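Aim 2 progress update. The chain analyzed this quarter is reproduced below.
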Amino acid sequence: MIDLENISAASRSEFAPLFAGFAITLMALEYLAGRLSHHDTHDLNETATSFVVAVGNKIVRVIEATVIAVPFVFAYNNRIFEIDSTSWAALILLFFLVEFVYYWHHRASHTVRWLWATHVVHHSPTRYNLTAAIRLGWTGAISGHFLFYVPLALIGFHPMAIAAILGANLGYQFFLHSELVPRLGLLELVLNTPTHHRVHHACNTDCLDKNFGGTLIVFDRLFGTFARPPQHESLRYGIVGRAYSNNPIDVIFGEWFALAGDLRGKKFGSADWFAVLLGRPKSAKTENIQERIEQRENAGSL
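Predicted structure tokens:
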């Protein structure tokens, strides 16, 4: 049996401050490299918004940690198998299982509006750089994103091991958010790389809903969601059909406001009501993202 205190303690990694300092240093170096190479990598207003959103995300995660732990504790205390989660064999198996679950979780986050309402925050930057990696939604617990991983505890993997493997997966993805990293040769066949993840974030028509992998790209190749960068057009970033904003409230809650607006007039629990919640993402606002990019370039933003 395990208790909530153990899970809460696991969520406060002693490596977090060290990783945060390292990440901020890399962000600064990326910005300087972009400036020196005259590569248009950052919009400072957008970057500032990302930092505000990131700080809020950290505060929310601390507050919700114990609540999120409850279903993992319950599932693990009723586990089907006894698995030694400290063994190398179990950890390797768990790595692939977490990657598999992450693929489907991430894919669902793009195709189910209730999940997209949180995940859309991460895709809102129009500049693809390391600061985009830390722009994460505050409403993951409301959307129930964590529930995808509860079956792993029911199978018999310790929640602390699940948190560690998933944390490593997400930590790896931080380094994928840069336009300055070139292709990585044969590693591109197996690993999710900056090249692949740039396609995932792009709003070009051929790039939408592609490359959902976390650490690996193999499940995208297996399930038909893999895409290479388009050959004859530059990648564009941002949200299709969503008004651009650097207001943190709009960034965090904009899709929730639009969702609430679309639910207005729908009978609670009706087929139409569920169609709005569980249907594909749709925004109540419209703005051509290419027009926004052209306006930004014409204005000569930082």
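Residues 1-11, 283-290 have pLDDT under 50 and may be disordered. Residues 113 and 281 are 4 Å apart (CA to CA). These observations will guide the mutagenesis experiments scheduled for the next reporting period.
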